[in-house]
Prior knowledge:
- 26% of the residues lie in helices and 36% in strands.
- The model is unreliable at 24-39 and 189-200 (pLDDT under 50).
- The protein has helices spanning 2-40, 141-148, 182-187; strands at residues 46-52, 57-65, 67-70, 80-86, 89-96, 101-102, 113-118, 121-130, 136-139, 152-159, 164-170.
- Strands 1, 2, 3, 4, 5, 6, 7, 8, 9, 10 and 11 form an 11-stranded antiparallel sheet that branches.
- By secondary structure, the chain is of the alpha+beta class.
- It starts with a helix and ends in a 13-residue tail after the last helix.
Amino acid sequence: xxxxxxxxxxxxxxxxxxxxxxxxxxxxxxxxxxxxxxxxxxxxxxxxxxxxxxxxxxxxxxxxxxxxxxxxxxxxxxxxxxxxxxxxxxxxxxxxxxxxxxxxxxxxxxxxxxxxxxxxxxxxxxxxxxxxxxxxxxxxxxxxxxxxxxxxxxxxxxxxxxxxxxxxxxxxxxxxxxxxxxxxxxxxxxxxxxxxxxxx
Length: 200
């Protein structure tokens, strides 16, 4: 009788282990499918309207989510490209990396270059500063025009006390952004009759 109970107990434990193995496999597969479907979806701009009561401005914020190719050691958010406009002009454009960004070499000072590629061609981006929390890297309007004209942008930044974080952006058409062409009007300067580029 004891032997029968022991066999029955082992059978129950075996079933529990089998159920755990099946559940773990299903979880891994669903996570892989979720990442695959995220990378397979068509990139789209998101629109957020911010009222800045302190400065008396209204900001039109356009956000394009990216995908980590090499994530930071602590994954807390989705990386994004952000363009903020006010009064029909670009005020800020930056990569929100989700990692605290530093110079590759701690002895470096001054401007930080972001290593990158635009449509497969090597391209370094000149930064104009970091956010106070170190998560966002601001870059020039000249680079912004090239980014918006691209199909794919890949950037690499160095994380504080970590390795290089690599992010891919599958660029969406600025004309397809929400809010009836606000982004296109804000980001692409028109040329006057004299041929000078209008200020962004």
